[in-house]
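Quick note —
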Amino acid sequence: MAHALWRKIPAPVRFFCMRHFFGIAREYAKTGRVVAHNRMLLAARYIEGDGIEIGGLGRPLKVGANARVKYVDRLSGDDLKTGYPEMGKKIRVLRPDIVANGETLDPISDSSQSFVIANHVIEHFENPVLFFKNAYRVLKDEGILYLAIPDKEKTFDHKRPVTGFAHIKEDFINGPTGSRWSHFLEFATLTSVDADLKQADHFRMAAETLMREDYSIHFHVWDIEGMIDMIQGVREEFEINFRIKCMVSSGDECVFILQKQA
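Predicted structure written out below.
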């Protein structure tokens, strides 16, 4: 009975629980320390002044004393706890200073921020190009976009195909609504431990539930080559002139330090 209930929990939630509360912990803790160390080194070097962090309320980036951060999320602190019960009581969630759509950053003025931090959020955006455009918009000249993206090869997304730049370009030009269902179905099918059984009805029902609940899935996934293609494509196709200052891969993620060019 308990096993059956456990299998009904979405795969990403099961992975989260196993990683943080059960056995995989030792190896994960070792990898996690490396990731945290690299993040802090990059923050110490590149993050200073006044800026924002998007969606980092359960695991905000540690920054130095010369950086002042306001936290942005699409939900209030209470709504985050309600919407994502898998975070549990042990995970401290900061209340956002600004409740806003992370793709549009509507309340934030043009050229007002020294930095924008977005760790493990771009894969949750249905319209990544729109996010890049608005991160570029709110940054001052020479401002920094600190961007950590999970490497699909090292996550529960490893069976999913890489999102090509042509796809996110189309989602920007035509709007992401047309591809929304396919993303939910792919997520439900290819991140499930039962994926090899090809239980189409089960996957379709799971996708319908996730879509109805507006669950924040990984809409898009990339390997490192795909990440670079996306950043270069955004720069060339949409004149969003970010220069790659630094790139560091560790654990399950790759961190890009992107600088806005005037």
